[in-house]
Write a structure and sequence with these properties.
With about 475 residues, the chain is of the alpha/beta class. It has 2 domains: about 5-260 and about 395-480, Amidase signature (AS) enzymes; about 305-370, no CATH class. About 40% of the residues lie in helices and about 15% in strands. The chain has 15 helices and 11 strands. It has an 11-stranded mixed sheet with strand order 1-3-2-4-6-5-10-11-9-7-8, with helices on both faces. A hairpin with a 5-residue loop joins strand 10 (about 435-445) and strand 11. The radius of gyration is 21 Å and the shape is globular. It starts with 7 loop residues before the first helix and ends in an 11-residue tail after the last helix. The relative contact order is 0.14. The model has no long low-confidence stretch (mean pLDDT about 95).
């Protein structure tokens, strides 16, 4: 019985009925993980012993008739920029190669409290800076649909693990599209919550005003279950919003009748892959057939999104990564004096992309350039929010592509950072405005590569996102298709 093929909600039902045990499920997932890992390289750390202990504890709880949550006994993976007590957290960087946190991130605390099973920590672009998971200091993750292609980034390890059934579901983080882009490129569901909906405590910071943790899952129902488990106010995170968390599963069967779907004209651009455009437009037509009203809307400042993002995100990265100095924790390269020690440590500890972003961020914050770059980018950020506010006066949800292209080949864009950055052109505006968005499969190219549909909602509109996504998923077969990994 291939237990690793099932979803969270299907496995929860079987666990509750006593048809399977958490121990058997965990052993099946670990076996699957080891069978495919040498081809996809989704994990940086596999926690088999911990997983077996947690599975045994879950079985004991089931035997006592205690069911804490739908995640009890379910094997999950965590992106390796989320702190896990006693388990290595590297951010895919030499700088933190041997760092073992003394505490759990809030989301990990909540998963432990729910009785979930941690099977490992997944690969990413170093410090979450990238769109392909090729910037990892350790290994490039490969796409389960085509091992010569990228899985997207920066949460490519989590997405590839879910797509390859090397876990049942996973957590990632999204700063400019890092959950949604890999979800689209690997044919899974990826949800980026509203900024402040999920605590960032214990998430290693890249860009603090943009980062947000969210789930990568096999279907929309599972995304609702994981979001339910990790959402909610956290007093340890000053940006955490004190907003009540609804029961997201209640939204899943409502359909789209009476909802208005906006289609931003700026998200269908010259140079976009024609198969991606055709699939997304077909998805919009499908939602219209299901009862949604569709209309064209405009987000006029979209062309400035990439430039704005790479000023603000890099400025925050420059500040956040200043803490890696070889003094307190992480890599230390000895030198005759402290200044030289800083220089050698940071030169050895950071990869090329991280260095590029630190330099750009330091530049835009420096005297004489702050007004010209950073302040103007902050002003533009306000305009992005206003664009979305205006659009949401006319519609309930926006429907767009996730990426202008399907998964590209490994190495294809490494020599051209601008082309790599443009992969996020349709996801970045959501982070700049702090909105929730979801990616779900809406088709495949002629070569069999997944294509993602992005749905965007107003702040704290995750219920509506899940409602529309579930209706579309129920009417289409794309989420049931699986990569041909033996």
């Amino acid at each position: 019985m291939e237990l690793w093929r099932y979803t969270v909600h299907e496995l929860h039902a079987r666990l509750c009925r006593g048809e399977i045990t958490a121990t058997a499920l965990t052993e099946a997932v670990l076996s699957r993980l080891h069978a495919v890992e040498d081809r996809i390289h989704a994990y940086l750390t596999v926690t088999a012993e911990l997983a077996q202990e947690q599975a045994a504890a879950a079985d004991a709880a089931f035997a006592r008739g205690e069911v804490r949550s739908p995640l009890q006994g379910i094997p999950l993976a965590i992106k390796d920029n989320i702190c896990t007590r006693g388990v290595r957290t590297t951010c895919a960087s030499r700088m933190l190669e041997h760092f073992v946190p003394p505490y759990d991130a809030t989301v990990v605390e909540r998963l432990r409290a729910a009785g979930a099973v941690l099977v490992g920590k997944t690969n990413l672009d170093e410090f979450a800076m990238g769109s392909s998971t090729e910037n990892s200091a350790f290994v490039a993750t490969r796409n389960p649909w085509d091992l010569e292609r990228v899985p997207g980034g920066s949460s490519g390890g989590s997405a590839a693990a879910v797509a390859a059934d090397a876990c049942i579901a996973a957590l990632g983080s999204d700063t400019g599209g890092s959950i949604r882009l890999p979800a689209a490129m690997t044919g899974v569901v990826g949800l980026k919550p509203t900024y402040g909906r999920v605590s960032r405590y214990g998430l290693v910071a890249f860009a603090s005003s943009l980062d947000q943790i969210g789930p990568l899952t096999k279907d929309v129902h599972d995304a609702a279950l994981l979001l339910q488990a990790i959402a909610g106010h956290d007093p340890r995170d000053a940006t955490s919003a004190p907003v009540p968390v609804p029961d997201y599963t209640q939204a899943l069967g409502r359909g789209v009748q009476g909802l208005t779907l906006g289609v931003p004209r700026e998200y269908f651009v010259a140079g976009m892959d024609p198969e991606v455009e055709a699939a997304v437009r077909a998805a919009v037509a499908q939602l219209e057939q299901l009862g949604a009203k569709c209309l064209d809307v405009s987000l006029p400042h979209t062309p400035y999104a990439v430039a704005t993002y790479y000023i603000l995100a890099n400025a925050e990265a420059s500040s956040n990564l200043a803490r890696y100095d070889g003094v307190r924790y992480g890599l230390r390269v000895e030198a005759p004096d402290v200044v030289e020690m800083y220089r050698r440590t940071r030169a050895a500890g950071f990869g090329a992309e991280v260095k590029r972003r630190i330099m750009l961020g330091t530049y835009v914050l420096s005297a004489g350039y702050y007004e010209a770059y950073y302040r103007k980018a902050q002003q533009l950020r306000t305009l992005f929010r206003r664009d979305f506010q205006e659009a949401f006066r006319r519609c309930d949800v926006l429907a767009t592509p996730v990426s202008p292209v399907p998964a590209f080949r490994l190495g294809e864009r490494l020599a051209d950072p601008l082309q790599m950055y443009l992969a996020d052109i349709f996801t970045i505006p959501v982070n700049l405005a702090g909105l929730p968005a979801i990616s779900l499969p809406c088709g495949f190219t002629a070569q069999g590569l997944p294509i993602g549909l992005q749905l965007i909602a107003p702040p704290f509109g995750e219920e509506t996102l899940l409602q529309v996504a579930a209706a579309y998923e129920a009417a289409t077969p794309f989420h049931r298709r699986q990569p041909a990994l033996a």
